[in-house]
What does this fold into?
Amino acid sequence: METVIYSTHKFEKDRLLNANINQHNIRFLEVPLNCDTAYLAKGALAVSIFVNDDASAPVLEKLSNAGVKFLVLRSAGYNHVNLEKAKELGIRIARVPAYSPYAVAEHAVALMLALNRKLIRANNRVHELNFSLDGLTGFDMHGKTVGIIGTGQIGSVIARILYGFDCRILAVDKSENKMIRERFGVIYSDYETLYKESDIITLHIPLSSETRYIICKETISKMKQGVMLINTSRGALINTKDVIEGLKIRQIGYLGIDVYEEESGLFFEDHSEDILQDDTISRLLTFNNVLITSHQAFLTNTALDNIASVTIYNLNCFYGGGKCENEL
It folds into this structure.
């Protein structure tokens, strides 16, 4: 029985091989899964996909016709999968529910610090032998109000880190986390209060119909002038064009993103010799108060090892005929 792994990256292939230990017959593909590449799964019982692969209804139809019964996600998020269609076709799905909340949380805080202290600009200056400090003034994190939208595993780690900076921490979530409220002084509030009082807002919620474009023209207008906005969760949580307008009028003072709504086909690839066709991200790149990383918040040794081991475990469950606790 063969397993096809789409969107294989150099940083994960050896880890997947080591976790597999010759248990499964794996065929690695560098191409992403989409309507044009689904036929490559012919003969495979299981397919593994990454965060930007296309598992929409038409693609799932093609996978089913090719004989695929199992879809194994190498991610926690599953908004790129049509779950209803998969159920209709009898394709079972499992994910990696938590690979390292510390990796993503620490990256979010790194974006905050780099933007605040203008580390990228400072480093570039020094390499040009410009040791001037003009234009590099930041602010103390101590005493600042940070709004955390979503206090699941990642949001809770963010609260723990920011507590160490002695920040005032506001949070919004459907369910309150008693531990971070009691240990780190997190104050649960409503969106209106969080937008109004936060110096920094960081997003840690899944993408759904309810959360799509949660950051838009209307909500940006409610935020503090010069707010710092951080997104390491899902690109479509923010309306990028509205954020650009917010940057232009200085309503948003800093933007740090590790995810982008139209990142598929752009992130995880080398386009250094290409002409960038995406006008929206091209505009973002013109702001010196914007810091963009290409979906690398998860990229630590711990997270990659966990993703590989859980992926192989999920395959073991499927092929063994048992119920998988990571199944959707």
